[in-house]
């Protein structure tokens, strides 16, 4: 199962639902964590691994935090880009140099 375009909260919910149907495939916590991480995007998966979670619940909570951080960073980059566009639009135009001036 892959997260795809789902929010992490929905992916986690669906993962837990499917896990309850096939408990024998992930008998211990470490196996559950590994299976959960397989479906996450690399940037979230890496962060969860680095945090050294020991339970599936901790893995889910960390992945939710990471998704929030990534969303916030994207929003900040977008806003910075929009500010830059507005600033560039209000700057006076500089005349371009001709070949004779170079």
Supply the key terms.
102 residues; mainly alpha; rod-shaped
Summarize the structure in words.
- The chain has one domain.
- The protein is 67% helix and 0% strand.
- It is built from 4 helices and no strands.
- It has helices at 8-21, 29-38, 42-50, 56-90.
- α3 (42-50) crosses α4 (56-90).
- The N and C termini lie far apart (59 Å).
- The model has no long low-confidence stretch (mean pLDDT 86).
Please summarize what this structure is.
This protein is mainly alpha-helical and 102 residues long.
User: Oligomer, anyone?
Assistant: single chain
Order of helices and strands: HHHH
Kindly state the number of beta strands. 0
> Strand-residue fraction?
under 5%
Taking the sheet with the most strands, its summary is: none
Radius of gyration: 23 Å
Structural class: mainly alpha
Helicity level, as a percent range? 55-70%
* Mean pLDDT across residues: 86
Outline the low-pLDDT stretches: none
Basic shape = rod-shaped
Distance between the first and last residues' Cα: 59 Å
Count, helices: 4
Work out the count of structural domains.
Answer: 1
